[in-house]
Automatic annotation (TrEMBL):
Source organism of this protein record: Acanthisitta chloris
Gene Ontology terms, MF aspect: phosphatidylinositol-3-phosphate binding
One GO BP: cilium assembly
Protein name, per record: BBSome complex member BBS5
Pfam families: BBL5
Keywords assigned by UniProt, alphabetized: Cell membrane, Cell projection, Cilium, Cytoplasm, Cytoskeleton, Membrane
Predominant localisation class: membrane
SMART domains: DM16 (SM00683)
Amino acid sequence: RAYETSKMYRDLKLRSALIQNKQLRLLPQEQIYDQISGVWNLSSDQGNLGAFFITNVRIVWHASMNDSFNVSIPYLQIRSIKMRDSKFGLALVIESSQQSGGYVLGFKIDPVEKLQEAVKEINSLHKVYSANPIFGVDYEMEEKPQPLEDLTVEQVPDDVEIESDEHTDAFVAYFADENKQHDREPVFSEELGLAIEKLKDGFTLQGLWEVMT
């Protein structure tokens, strides 16, 4: 439900129910920072005159003669905000992300000084939003996690002293017989089908297997 009711914060919308009595229908946590009249939408050959609403969440343009002819551009979907030359003169160009369709939307604002101020303001709000985005979903954490400083435990070195023994012979650990000095002669084992060291008297292969298992 939270995802479905917060789409306006994330999705670029065309011809939606955005305007009521010439005023923007604000979303929760949304604030209007500026409203600019006399803004031409350059999507058609002759252009359409309308107005801008610049908020902390999105940019909304609507036509003066038809409120349903509008566009809502969330900062989340804005790829770039620039000024470019067009057949109508210097214009504000907003490029949306590929995820939202990769639209290139042009708007003309006169005079040029007013256009420059609008570009600067929109870029500034876009940076603020990018650093601290608003997704339209309120939540409360039931249990606040402890800070990392409280969870960090100082590592205490182990009180272990390693004594070196230069006379240790590693091969001694592999001798199966106590006090064994040399290998016994090899003999053929019919059970294994290969040559093995001759077993001590009283030992059998079966007995050695039983010890291992």
